[in-house]
Amino acid sequence: MTAPAVRFDRVSKRFPGAQALTDVSFEIAAGSCHALCGENGAGKSTLGKIIAGIHQPDGGRLFIDGAEVHFSGPRDALAAGVGMVHQELAFCDNLSVAENLCLSALPQRATVVDREEMRRRADALLAETGTQLDVTREFGKLAIGQRQMVQIAAAVGGGARIIVFDEPTSSLSQAEAERLFELIERLKARGVTCIYVSHRMPEIFRLCDAVTVLRDGRHVATLKTGGLVESDLVQMMIGRPLAEYFPRHADAAASQEVLRVEGLTVPGQFENVSFTLHEGEVLGLAGLMGAGRSEVASTLFGLEQPTRGTIHLHGKPVRIESPSHAISLGIGFVPEDRKRQGLVLGASGLHNTSLPILRRLSRLSFIKRRRERALATDYFSRLRVRTPSVDAVVAGLSGGNQQKIVLAKWLAADARILILDEPTRGVDVGAKAEIHTLIGELAARGTAILVISSELPEVISLSERIVVLREGRVAGELSRREATEDSVLRLMAGLRAS
């Protein structure tokens, strides 16, 4: 019998104020793709980081290829053949792609860095994942999906025999995700063991041979994916039946126009974009990576200034000068990259939630702390944010709980126009359904919502209408009745309707 690639024996881990893992035991077969599933805060990423040497367990034992190991850091894990693709990017934004990819072993000629060799190595690493990039570009200036592919290239190119993929497709386009799936199949064929942390059911059933479910830091079950039903897996993850994965909100009746965009243009990003948004409506904005979706959202929130075009709010033309001006106009924005744009990571959940409304919570320049805490506690409860308390530092929370806090601050601000850019990125299936339900409730109360999502089932399910962008221009608009994955994809790709 071949020894399992990884074996956990009663592994436990505690962080200040929270028990992340309790007596977790299971095995991962060598050369397989094994999924780790569970709600946010279930312990999936913590388990992955223990394998990768980032965290050390407080109790229990970890075995790699049948031998017990004790990693004091990621370098030890790499030496043992374990690599990791992190959900949240961990590279240096101010260095080039090539410098990031070769940082652990810079090629040298005498005492000088051999930059030609460094670029050659970086190109070779990216080619392994099917990615083509200018490796001299600054990493921080890449699109988030491109940054994720660079990180995947670094993990795969390191020659690891065991690779942990932590939500690897959360920021990838469909085309990039397909390249990743092909890469994982090639890795399995070479005998590499892939540990796949994901909330996305189709990916798990497509790629994985077995799945382990965690709930509240405890092992629930380890099962083969063959013969397993998606609804049963979801119920094991969340501990309760889930009536609908993508619940629809009620169709909105004709209502008052609250936002009109006409001929909006930011050179090099998008051109001549026009659409309307009504009270109580959910409008979808779809398009391939680079089509200009996030750039339109940033402009509506005052982060970019258009060179042409007009924005009308409630029938009156406005020039949105800055995010603070947008907030004063009743606009809220959940950005694509929560860590860089949506949160103050070193601050508490309490202070992140109250940040947009400090003036409202203040009197004579003093913040009403009791009211601030009551507000944050209320929204944490409504959104089921899993945290020891509202005072917990946001940087230490799981990605899904961080996303809920970004949503909480705009609910607390009572935004009347809400722009949601990838609102369920990195969020588990239970929380995803809750966020979808929340979007429906907000729309029913009259909030106008603009939803941007790379997941076509999500944007089709939630939206009354869908505006499709292609290469920075509006390619077409579809009603809910007309919108199918095929019809939206054809507009995205510039093809005629079938």
SSE layout and pairing:
Blueprint: E1 6-15, E2 18-28, E3 33-37, H1 44-51, E4 59-64, E5 67-69, H2 74-79, E6 82-85, H3 97-101, E7 108-109, E8 112-113, H4 115-128, H5 144-157, E9 162-166, H6 174-189, E10 193-197, H7 201-207, E11 210-215, E12 218-224, H8 230-238, E13 257-266, E14 270-278, E15 282-286, H9 293-300, E16 308-313, E17 316-318, H10 323-328, E18 331-334, H11 338-342, H12 349-354, E19 362-363, E20 366-367, H13 369-382, H14 399-412, E21 417-421, H15 429-444, E22 448-452, H16 456-462, E23 465-470, E24 473-479, H17 485-493
Parallel strand pairs: 3-10, 3-11, 6-9, 9-10, 15-22, 15-23, 18-21, 21-22
Antiparallel strand pairs: 1-2, 1-4, 4-5, 7-8, 11-12, 13-14, 13-16, 16-17, 19-20, 23-24
Helix pairs in contact: 4-5, 13-14
